[in-house]
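[Automated response] Your request has been received and processed.

Submitted sequence:
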Amino acid sequence: MSDVRAQHPRIAILGGGIGGLAASAFLYREGMSATVYEQASELKEIGAGLVVAPNAARLLRRLGVMDGLAERAVRLDTGWEFRRWEDGTVLSAEDLASSCEELYGEHTYTAHRADLLAALRSAVPGDVRLGKRCVGITVGDGGLPVLRFADGETTEPDIVIGADGIHSVVRGAVTEPSPAVYSGYCAFRALVPSERAPAFARRPAQTLWIGPGHHLVHYPVSAGRFVNLVAFAPAGDDVVESWTATATVREFLAEFATWDARLTDLIQAAGTPGRWALLDRAPLRRWTRGPVTLLGDAAHPMFPFFAQGAAQAIEDAAVLARCVADRPGDPLGALRRYERLRIPRTTRLQEASHARASVNHLPDGPEQQARDASFADADPLKANAWIYAYDPEHALAETSA
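Generated structure:
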């Protein structure tokens, strides 16, 4: 590799979603550039809301985009507000307004995914190429990866970052292909205009209603203009894994017909809901092969029950950029260090998110009663300090470059 290439490795990022743009933004912050290849013809986020927890907000502030995002997001006063399915009894609630910043130096926000994507795009001055679908990855005789695109173009970067989601093409170049397994759950999602939403759902609160085999989450997004609604239920045979698949309000209501009437009012206010199957993948033991690595859902898809999918992709991006910046002439060593730093943490979150489903969905009975009683003494904000207090820069400083 020439001295110029050693100082500034050529980096290709496959995927222009949250993880891909975050990787490009953090690389730019470290003085490097990357080319983002996105198969869609425009940058957009399908889906609805997400939680911007302190560990994500901290990193977005370092990119200089948090203040702008906060104008379009909602700062939560209450989080982890667990309610009983039948009558809305509050089992526990966390006062985020008074304690979150004190504990972690940042507030917790909820945001529309498109607003987060736009914030990240504003921090990416580099090349973003749309309509570029990668159809193959090989490693050439010189040890460099070769990317082939559907339009016939090829390129030979020094590093390939696969941020191309749960159906990642890059994943197959890194590890043995393994099909995703259907989890048995499906998710309904909808955005309810605030003027149609009941008052209880418009509060700056993240509320989780839990009950037999189901749970439902709602919180405001888009500066309070909408209420994001996402619910989890047993999956039927005809449910597909697609963010663009839809259901009917009647189907959505049928899953929660016996729940608190306030929830059925909220569901009835929704437009056509989306519905997709949750896929399950076991944690990977490796994310990297040679100069090719994975990031975000391509590396560690997780159930959304800790609301950490986007945050972990942003953390990946920050760690990866610093590792490459520390070893610009040694891409293979940089990627191995990145993998070594990130796999234990994301594996722990994958496993915790997986276990949460059975806790949330207990049928009424002794186990459910014991769970509900335990909420009175729970402090999820402090109990999850391992998630929210994490700072990639501290983690990197504890390891040698």
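Summary generated for your ticket: Residues 331-360 form the longest helix (30 residues). The chain has a mean pLDDT of 91.
If you did not submit this request, please reply to this message.
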